[in-house]
Each structure stands twice: as C-alpha cells, then as structure tokens.
Amino acid sequence: MTIVKQINWKTIMAGTALSAMLVLSACSGGGEETTEEELSTDPGTTEDASTEVDETAEGNDGDEESTDDGDVSENSTDEDETGLSARGEGVTELSLGETGELETTLGTYNASVTNVEFVETIDDKEPDEGGRFLIADVTFENTSEQPLDSYEISRAWIINMDDESNFESRDYYTELDNFEGEIPPGETMQGQLAFLTTEGGENYQIQIGLEVYSNELLWNFTTAEAE
To answer: Where is the composition biased (Acidic residues) (predicted)?
Structure first.
C-alpha cells in the first residue's frame, strides 16, 4: 500500500509540472503574437496618415494655383478698368497739319500742330551754344463739358530723334502768341509754343500729352520742313 501511494504522488506531481509548463508556454506565445500585431499595426497606421497628408497637400497645391490664376486675371481687369487705358492710353504718331484727340485727367480736347519753324532769336535772345529755337503753331479744341486751362493743356516737348534729346517747351515770350486763359467747351484756341532743341538733327518730334495723365500725340517732321 505504501508503494502505491508513492507512485500516485509522483504521478500527480509530474502532471502538475506538465500543466504549468503548458500554461507558461501558452502565455509566452500569446505575448509574442500581441507584439507582432502591434508592430504590424503601427507601420500601417503611419503609412495611412502620411498618405492622407500627401493627398491633402496635393489638393492644396491645386487650389493655390487656381486661386493665383484668378487673382492675376482679376487684377488685370481692374487695371484695364481704372488705368490710363480707360482714358485713351497709347501713343499716336501724326504728320504736321493732322489732328489728334487727347483724353486726360483735365478733360478731353483735340490738338493740332500746323506749322514749325527754326528761328535765330526769340525776344532778341539767341539760343544757348549748340542749340536752336523752334516755334510751333498749335490749335486746341475743347471737346469736354467744362472749361480747360489753355496753359495747363499746352505742355509739350520737342524730341531730337537723332541724338534722343528732349526738352520741354519754354513758358512765355512776349513776341509769341502764348496760350493764356480758359477754353470754353466746344471752343478752339490758336497759339504758339517755343522750344530750345539741339543742333545737328534731321528728324524731330513734338509731343503733347504725357503718359502719367493722358495719352500721347507725336508730330513728326524733318529739318527741311522747319526751315
């Protein structure tokens, strides 16, 4: 009887030890599976997030490009509606005797240069060394609805096309028919403008109007036409 009890006790102990080993093995295997699942899930989550960021960035880039194009187009339209082009921006070249229209911040008017002449003196004064005087006959017609100051609208420049020099007209000479007073709407005024320009040129231009406040008119003439 004693022998049987010892054998049974050893059997029980062996069974208990085996069961404990199985339990530990099972726990260990479960932990490894959990770790593997966590590792495999994290990269997937990171990849998904980066993909969403990239797609969002691409979408934003597309939106920005579309917005920029729209802004540029809108700005261009605004400039066309409010810039000088709305008042007749541009340059018109004319010959002596021809009439051009000026659309300015002061009003609208027509201008014509009918005759030009080089002279040796004005008011008994000779030109500076290397220069010569030119007198131009000019006519203005007020086409706006308000009076125009003839002195203000008669600003003009002479350009020597050969040496590219330019000079503004001289203000006042007693022997000339200077522009003074207002021009009523629908009325015309004739007068003269005096210029000091450089010698040696063959091709000249008289410019009336300036791009900062109007369009520009250019009358072309040669030295032969002014002598």
So the answer is: 49-82
